[in-house]
């Protein structure tokens, strides 16, 4: 039987998942001890995560290093990028690895990690791999949909894969391949996926959002997110949240196309204001949303929130009654926690904007719900008339059973 359970957290959704998982495990076996290793990225290092920390008995902090920093990895592996990696990334990665080696894992322990793609996540997997005291469990991202889509829509990039694998050879446990959305006329986009060539951990599970698909597939689990009390507090004024995004995907399009996009986005935001004129409006700013992009958004009438993640916001604010976004993953998370949430991208004329079919298919495969198709707003008239209204299914029992099944498979219960 395992004695200690370790969790590695780098991104904001990690904290929400690991606190949920810790609570489920503690209910099954209160004798376990939970320890959290944190490595906050520079964009969210000042976020308030206090709500999630109470679930853990001990917390470690390690530095953060990234081979994605400054976008150099997009150039692929060349002599110049090789030298940059040796000079800038390798010393920082060795420093983080030394910090991780200072953590003495207890015998018969297990470590959970999400995604596994970043430098720090790879370093943690490597640290665990060479420690006989601990077994590793990796959750693969629910945001990668290539294997459930048309593979012809994706292009393999050997040079970019080689640049990342240069780091993973020394600091990871398994190489990976980078696939980019295929676009005509060399339109630049940020839509890409990472897939490991072999299992990088002792146990690997593909996760998916509870509202995404109706049925689980083999070796898939529901992403563990449960809010103990997801009842909306009855208040005279509820909170309507609009999730901001950096919209990297459109940066490669002509300036006129970008102007059309933000014009349409602001038209939809004005309708949100009209629909909820008597409610509290809150704009959740994305940590990657530059001031230049933020100023393009009509946020008059909104309170601006930038001190915490959307996950922390959903867990802490019981007045939130509805969430909107163009295409944020926060929509799936909010719905999972019992908050009606909606994607807006179908209200944009993709043909008018010149969005390639490959990107449109990516949207439809990634940002959708088989459980609640109403989540995708396709008509302004229907939406304003309330035809998209829905009450999210209570997924707590289904998530709990999926999580217990995973725990049984790794030998914890």
Notes on the structure:
By secondary structure, the chain is an alpha/beta fold. The chain has 2 domains: 4-227 and 396-409, Rossmann fold (3-Layer(aba) Sandwich), CATH 3.40.50; 239-384, Rossmann fold. The chain contains 13 helices and 15 strands. It has helices at residues 12-28, 50-53, 79-101, 119-129, 158-171, 255-275, 291-294, 310-316, 330-336, 350-353, 357-366, 380-384, 396-409, and strands spanning 4-9, 33-38, 58-61, 109-114, 134-140, 154-156, 176-181, 192-196, 203-208, 220-222, 239-243, 280-284, 303-305, 320-325, 341-343. It has a 7-stranded parallel β-sheet with strand order 3-2-1-4-5-9-10, sandwiched between helices. Strands 13-12-11-14-15 form a 5-stranded parallel β-sheet, with helices on one face. The longest helix has 23 residues, at 79-101. It is globular and about 60 Å long. The termini are close together. The mean pLDDT is 93.
Q: How many β-strands, per DSSP? A: 15
What is the fold-level CATH name, i.e. the topology of the largest domain?
Answer: Rossmann fold
For the terminal residues, how far apart are their CA atoms?
Answer: 8 Å
Which geometry do the CA atoms define? globular
- Number of H- or I-type helical stretches: 13
Q: Biggest sheet: strands side by side, in what order? A: 3-2-1-4-5-9-10
Structural class: alpha/beta
Helix share, percent: 25-40%
Low-confidence stretches: none
């Amino acid at each position: 039987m395992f004695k200690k359970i370790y969790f590695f957290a780098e991104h904001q959704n990690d904290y929400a998942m690991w606190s949920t998982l810790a609570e489920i495990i503690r209910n099954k076996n209160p004798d376990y001890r939970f320890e959290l290793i944190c490595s906050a990225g520079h964009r969210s290092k000042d976020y308030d995560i206090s709500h999630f920390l109470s679930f853990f008995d001990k917390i470690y902090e390690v530095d953060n290093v990234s081979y994605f920093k400054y976008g150099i990895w997009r150039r692929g592996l060349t002599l110049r990028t090789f030298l940059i990696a040796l000079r800038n990334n390798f010393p920082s990665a060795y420093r983080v690895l030394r910090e991780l080696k200072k953590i003495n894992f207890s015998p018969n322990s297990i470590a959970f990690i999400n995604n596994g793609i970043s430098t720090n996540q790879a370093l943690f997997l490597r640290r665990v791999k060479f420690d006989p005291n601990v077994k590793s469990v990796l959750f693969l991202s629910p945001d990668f949909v290539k294997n459930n889509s048309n593979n012809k829509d994706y292009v393999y990039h050997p040079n970019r894969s080689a640049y990342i694998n240069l780091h993973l050879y020394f600091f990871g446990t398994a190489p990976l391949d980078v696939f980019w959305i295929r676009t005509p006329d060399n339109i630049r986009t940020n839509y890409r996926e990472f897939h490991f060539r072999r299992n990088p951990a002792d146990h690997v599970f593909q996760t998916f959002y509870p509202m995404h698909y109706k049925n689980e597939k083999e070796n898939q689990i529901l992403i563990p997110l449960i809010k103990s009390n997801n009842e909306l507090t009855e208040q005279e004024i509820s909170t309507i949240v609009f999730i901001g995004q950096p919209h990297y995907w459109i940066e490669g399009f002509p300036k006129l196309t970008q102007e059309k996009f933000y014009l349409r986005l602001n038209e939809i935001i004005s309708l949100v204001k009209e629909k909820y004129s008597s409610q509290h409006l809150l704009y959740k700013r994305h940590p990657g949303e530059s001031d230049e992009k933020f100023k393009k958004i009509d946020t008059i009438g909104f309170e601006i929130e930038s001190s915490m993640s959307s996950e922390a916001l959903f867990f802490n604010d019981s007045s939130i009654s509805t969430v909107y976004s163009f295409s944020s993953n926060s929509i799936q998370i909010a719905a999972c926690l019992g908050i009606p949430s909606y994607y807006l991208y179908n209200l944009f004329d993709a043909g008018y904007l010149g969005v390639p079919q490959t990107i449109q298919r990516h949207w439809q495969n990634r940002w959708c719900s088989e459980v609640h198709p109403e989540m995708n707003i396709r008509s302004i008239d229907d939406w304003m008339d309330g035809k998209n209204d829905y009450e999210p299914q209570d997924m707590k029992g289904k998530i709990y059973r999926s999580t217990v099944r995973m725990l049984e498979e790794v030998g914890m219960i």
